[in-house]
């Protein structure tokens, strides 16, 4: 999620350092068919097995199949899409529980896809943003501008500080430590400090799905941006995965447990039998690789294992709240809240603006995002409502319904997307992408050095690995 691009895009160029330096006709095996397959302990032989039917796996498989390769996709879940997941349980509403935006619509392969398939998109205007203080008071535009300008200056200072550290070849530290250094001599008022925490959280921590304590000062922002502003898909991101999946052989409910590779080929052991192929593309999320729940035999090369350890998998969670009426500003895209507690409920997206339905979407990232996963749905909704009541008074109605994500504990991702902690670097994404023995190939957002944590990065990584196989 890239909530606060309003000022993020403005400052990104200032701070960059090393940078710039469906099922319809598809052959998806529904669970009942998969059960039959499992009973027969069938061995499906293909030229290439793709592990994971997220956007990376789907794009790899469709590119290979178009070039005449026989491909089978093994997917653990009972659905395709992975971290693209649209909920349709509320009447006439398609709500994205994973990715929401096409980040940077210009020269974006997702834009090309949505245009080719006439999928509707709506731009998000990050300038259309109301900001509320910790007492629920609405800040004026001038007050917001002042906060933004102060933050931009601060990031400039951080940038200078990091250049100085790099010149003296100092060890990497966290972004939080760098902020701490800057404020060692500068005293902030309580108000300024709350405003700073709000901006850090909404601009950086939501963007990277982790706390600044877990971001490398040297490399946190080494990723690249596409231009053109962001757009979302009011009728759901799953339209994209559905069109990509058409005509592909996808085995749902196939949880991969072990991957064996040797000169004779690749064997993939799942809960529904063993599958063999000449090559495999692995699109397992970084969180799954980090948990070490899938056995590789022989083990993955040490340098790949080390890169998996160094990179971080963060958490961004969403809470959709449906109300009987709209009590908030109908015309604003975003509603910000300067919380007394850093990281709690700092941004809401006004879903009404895109759908005409009385729905708000709250975001929580990093430590607090993960913490919410231990709470009951009722407790999470109550926490959101405490903030909304502060802003809109006690007379607002309780929500009629809610949808809550828990990506951190999801066994098929263990997190939302990757980031670069202290002492890791963009190079680790490249290492993750390195093939092993010309048999195992790796795709997925965490193999994209340029566009990690995005849908387009994942899609391009799938194309990259398909090309690599076809070149051989
Ligand atoms: C809350 C949230 C908000 C986001 N917002 C945005 C956004 O607005 N814009 C944007 O560009 N990006 C966003 N992202 C990031 C984006 O969703 C991901 O980068 C992208 O979807 C990742 O695709 P992938 O194919 O690499 O991985 P995945 O989609 O995770 O695909 C991997 C697949 O592997 C499967 N799998 C896992 N374990 C096994 C196993 N053992 N056996 C078989 N299969 C297995 C999974 O079920 C999954 O289907 C967001 C992500 C989240 C979670």
Per-chain topology:
Layout: H1 5-15, E1 27-29, H2 31-39, E2 45-51, H3 55-66, E3 71-74, E4 86-87, E5 95-96, E6 101-102, H4 109-116, E7 122-123, E8 129-132, H5 141-167, H6 175-182, H7 190-208, E9 231-232, H8 238-245, E10 249-251, E11 256-262, E12 265-270, E13 273-282, H9 286-291, E14 295-297, H10 302-310, E15 312-314, E16 316-322, E17 334-337, E18 347-350, H11 352-355, E19 359-365, H12 366-371, H13 377-392, E20 401-404, E21 417-419, H14 426-433, E22 440-442, H15 455-471
Parallel strand pairs: 1-10, 2-3, 2-13, 3-10, 8-17, 11-14, 13-22
Antiparallel strand pairs: 4-5, 6-9, 7-9, 11-12, 12-13, 15-21, 16-19, 16-20, 17-18, 18-19
Helix pairs in contact: 1-5, 3-15, 10-14
The chain binds flavin-adenine dinucleotide (FAD).
The site of flavin-adenine dinucleotide has 41 residues, from helix 3, strand 16 and helix 15.
Notes on the protein architecture:
With 472 residues, the protein is an alpha/beta fold. It folds into 2 domains: 5-19 and 85-234 and 314-409, Alpha-Beta Complex (Polyamine Oxidase, Chain A, domain 2); 27-84 and 236-312 and 422-471, FAD/NAD(P)-binding domain, CATH 3.50.50. The protein is built from 15 helices and 22 strands. Flavin-adenine dinucleotide binds at residues 1-2, 51-57, 74-77, 82-84, 98-101, 103, 255-256, 283-285, 288, 294, 316, 318, 407, 412-413, 416-417, 444-445, 453-455, 458.
CA(first)-CA(last) distance: 36 Å
Largest sheet: 9 strands, mixed
Q: Count structural domains.
A: 2
Shape: globular
- Structural class of the helix and strand makeup? alpha/beta
* Number of contiguous helices: 15
Q: Indicate the CATH topology of the largest domain.
A: Polyamine Oxidase, Chain A, domain 2
Rounded to the nearest angstrom, the radius of gyration is 23 Å
Q: What's the total count of β strands?
A: 22
State mean pLDDT (0 to 100 scale): 92
The CATH class of the largest domain is: Alpha Beta
Proportion of β residues? 15-25%
Contiguous runs where pLDDT drops below 50 for at least 5 residues = 1-6, 13-42
Could you say what the CATH architecture of the largest domain is?
Alpha-Beta Complex
Ligands = flavin-adenine dinucleotide
Which range best describes the helical content: under 10%, 10-25%, 25-40%, 40-55%, 55-70% or over 70%?
25-40%
């Amino acid at each position: 999620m890239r909530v606060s691009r309003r000022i993020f895009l403005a400052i990104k160029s200032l701070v960059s350092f090393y940078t710039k330096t469906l099922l319809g006709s598809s052959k998806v095996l529904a669970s009942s068919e998969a059960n039959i397959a499992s009973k027969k302990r069938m061995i499906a032989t293909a030229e290439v097995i793709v592990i994971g039917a997220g956007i990376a796996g789907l794009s790899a498989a469709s590119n290979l199949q178009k070039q005449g390769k026989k491909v089978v996709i093994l997917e653990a879940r009972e659905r395709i899409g992975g971290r693209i997941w649209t909920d349709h349980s509320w009447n006439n509403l398609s709500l994205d529980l994973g990715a929401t935006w096409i980040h940077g619509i210009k020269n974006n392969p997702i834009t090309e896809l949505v245009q080719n398939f006439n999928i509707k998109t709506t731009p998000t205007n990050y300038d259309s943003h109301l900001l509320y203080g910790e007492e629920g008071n609405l800040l004026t535009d001038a007050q917001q501008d002042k906060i933004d300008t102060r933050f931009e200056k601060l990031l400039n200072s951080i940038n200078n500080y990091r250049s100085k550290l790099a010149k003296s070849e100092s060890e990497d530290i966290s972004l939080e430590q760098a902020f701490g250094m800057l404020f060692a001599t500068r005293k902030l008022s309580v108000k300024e400090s709350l405003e700073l925490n709000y901006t850090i959280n909404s601009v950086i921590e939501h963007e990277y799905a982790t706390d600044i304590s877990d971001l490398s000062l040297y490399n946190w922002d080494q990723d690249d941006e596409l231009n053109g502003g962001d757009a979302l898909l009011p009728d759901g991101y799953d339209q994209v995965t559905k069109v990509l999946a058409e005509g592909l052989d996808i085995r749902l409910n196939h949880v991969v447990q072990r991957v064996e590779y040797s000169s004779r080929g690749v064997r993939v052991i799942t809960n529904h039998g063993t599958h063999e192929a000449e090559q495999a593309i692995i699109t397992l999320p970084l969180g799954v690789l980090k948990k070490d729940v899938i056995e590789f035999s022989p083990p993955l090369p040490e340098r790949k294992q080390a890169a998996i350890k160094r990179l971080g998998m963060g958490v961004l969670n969403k809470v959709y709240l449906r109300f009987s009426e709209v009590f908030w500003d109908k015309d604003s895209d975003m509603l910000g809240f300067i919380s007394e507690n850093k990281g709690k409920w700092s941004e809401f997206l006004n879903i009404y603006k895109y759908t005409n339905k009385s729905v708000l979407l709250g975001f929580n990232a990093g430590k607090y995002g993960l913490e919410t996963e231990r709470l009951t749905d009722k407790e999470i909704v109550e926490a959101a409502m405490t903030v909304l009541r502060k802003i809109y008074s006690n007379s607002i109605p309780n929500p009629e319904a809610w949808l809550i994500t828990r990506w951190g504990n999801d066994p098929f991702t263990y997190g939302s997307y990757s980031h670069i902690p202290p002492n890791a670097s963009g190079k680790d994404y490249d290492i993750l992408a390195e093939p092993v023995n010309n048999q195992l190939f790796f795709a997925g957002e965490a193999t994209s050095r340029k566009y990690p944590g995005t849908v387009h990065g994942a899609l391009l990584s799938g194309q990259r690995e398909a090309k690599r196989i076809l070149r051989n």
